[in-house]
């Protein structure tokens, strides 16, 4: 807790950098800056995500805003830490209109969470890094972001990773499995399903699972 007390201001600054507008308008440049900030925050707090919940909840809520999470913020420790609105006053955010541009901030925030909660087996964070479970959700999460979420979830739930085809298949939500299997069904109407959404989600989930096996775990 004492160690986190010293690291907390640094962590807040790092999380602010993920959402900070860079000097130019180049989206790739801004995304690269956010990813670098995400690695920095994650490495500063590597595997320490559950050591000081009062501090970390504020950071995690902010990071999930950058990812585009719809879950409500944790309110248990708002008396002890600054609100996200207060923190944002000191850190410029990458905004398009009135919304955070998650296309820029999501990769860095996902990386930060994965490293902060590395091997912690945190069910709460794992569940918040959700994989799309409905047709509707598939339209709002980019396939490459789905892959990052799969990798992050497996870094968090380290002990659950197994080198088997069955484990890889278990990473794929039922709606995506059924959607891909139904593509060859002559009775299905291609106009009623988004073929690209199902195929790209399926491929990126499998790739994310294989990366989890090939490098971090084994």
Can you tell me about this structure?
Keywords: Cell cycle, Cell division, Mitosis. GO terms for molecular function: molecular adaptor activity. InterPro entries: Apc1. This protein has a two-stranded antiparallel sheet. It has 2 domains: 1-122, no CATH class; 130-218. It is mostly helical and 218 residues long. 60% of the residues lie in helices and 2% in strands. It has 11 helices and 2 strands. Helix 1 (2-18) runs antiparallel to helix 2 (27-44).
Helical segment count: 11
The percentage of residues in β strands lies in under 5%
- Give the overall average pLDDT: 77
Portion of residues in helices? 55-70%
Spatial extent as radius of gyration:
18 Å
Which runs of at least 5 residues are low in confidence (pLDDT < 50)?
1-6, 71-93
In spatial order, strands of the major sheet run 1-2
| Total number of beta strands | 2
Q: How many domain units?
A: 2
The best one-word shape is globular
Helix and strand element order = HHHHEEHHHHHHH
Largest sheet: 2 strands, antiparallel
């Amino acid at each position: 807790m004492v160690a986190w007390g010293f690291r907390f201001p640094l962590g807040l600054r790092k999380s602010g950098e993920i959402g900070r507008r860079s000097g130019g308008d180049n989206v790739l440049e801004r995304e690269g800056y956010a990813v670098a900030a995400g690695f920095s925050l994650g490495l500063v707090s590597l595997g320490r995500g559950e050591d000081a919940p009062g501090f970390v909840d504020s950071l995690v809520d902010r990071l999930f805003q950058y990812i585009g999470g719809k879950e409500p913020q944790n309110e248990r420790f708002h008396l002890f830490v600054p609100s996200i609105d207060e923190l944002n006053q000191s850190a410029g955010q990458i905004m398009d209109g009135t919304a955070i541009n998650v296309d820029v901030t999501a990769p860095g925030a996902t990386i930060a969470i994965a490293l902060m909660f590395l091997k912690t087996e945190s069910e709460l964070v794992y569940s918040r890094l959700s994989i799309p479970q409905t047709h509707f959700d598939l339209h709002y999460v980019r396939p490459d972001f789905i892959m990052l979420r799969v990798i992050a979830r497996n870094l968090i739930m380290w002990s659950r990773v197994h080198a088997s085809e069955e484990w890889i298949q278990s990473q794929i939500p039922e709606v995506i499995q059924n959607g891909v299997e139904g593509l060859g069904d002559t009775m299905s109407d291609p106009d009623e399903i988004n073929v690209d959404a199902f195929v790209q989600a399926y491929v990126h989930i499998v790739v994310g699972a294989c990366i989890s096996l090939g490098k971090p775990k084994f």
